[in-house]
Amino acid sequence: MIAHEQIPTVLDHPVYDTEGKKIGDAKHVFVDDATGRPAWVTVKTGLFGTSESFVPIKDASMVDDHLEVPYPKDRVKDAPHVDVDGGGHLDASEEQRLYEYYDIDWDEAWQRANQPGEAGWAHDTTGTAGTTGAAGTAGMTGTAGAAGTAGTAGLRDRDGDSLGNRDAGTARRDTSVDDDAMTRSEEQMHVGTERVETGRVRLRKYVVTEEVQQTVPIRHEEVRVEREPITDANRGQALSGPEISEAEHEVTLHEERPVVETRTVPVERVGLRTDEVTEEETVTGQVRRERIDVETDDVTDISEDPDRRRGH
Questions:
Q1: Is 15 helix (H, G, I), strand (E, B) or coil?
Q2: Terminal Cα distance for the chain, rounded
Q3: Cα 278 from chain centroid?
Q4: Would the pTM of this model clear 0.70, i.e. be above it?
Q5: Which residue, 156, 14, 35, is CA-closest to 85?
Q6: Cβ atoms of residues 6 and 61 within 8 Å
Q7: How far is CA 28 from the centre of its chain?
């Protein structure tokens, strides 16, 4: 059972089925106007969340940051379509159709909800039967005319009245017949922020082969023939051998050749760091407010307190 105080934690959070599959995100919570207790939750399903499906919230539970409902995903997605934008109401015929779809006995649920004591959850805080619903029947979810939605702009009872920040299970009604004043209310828009994942950045290291060029000096030996005439300085060496003979003299030549060797050395470290940037974004929404007009029957001497008029 989801309590009235848990509704803000349900809205816009994921909804999972009995097998742990995500169905969609919770969009609205419909509450009973007699008790203020949550009765239904709508889940945005379909491609890009283009449709909403109703799910009973009585046996649902909050687990960590998501809502778990005791129904499979396909059954929730195939639930009867109900127009939740039609004034924020769920009338008796629509609710009975949903009861039948989820195999919930309509008459048994009505009797169980109206049992004496705390077991009858359709009773109000004084222990008496629930107040009259929009259709004029008993104020129990499923038998009354409609249940109000609890969207991000606030909770609504079956008549579409804003519950605002009142205590759980209490809906505003002008029940005092003899009262000569009206209560004017208005909605206020409260904008919050949520942290969502927009993408991921990762580092990946891979190996590429490149050609590099480097110029190095290399040396080699060349042969040069030197001739010198016979002089007194070299005559002895020149005449040391036989007068006429055959001879051979060999010289070994050398040269340098480039040798390529690679070595692995660290050159830099690369890491990722996130910087938080704050920007301003304007959010546009719609709020409703009540206005009070004065209607007279040929009465001209009507004045209004300026100080009180400014409060309107």
A1: strand
A2: 40
A3: 19
A4: no
A5: 156
A6: no
A7: 16
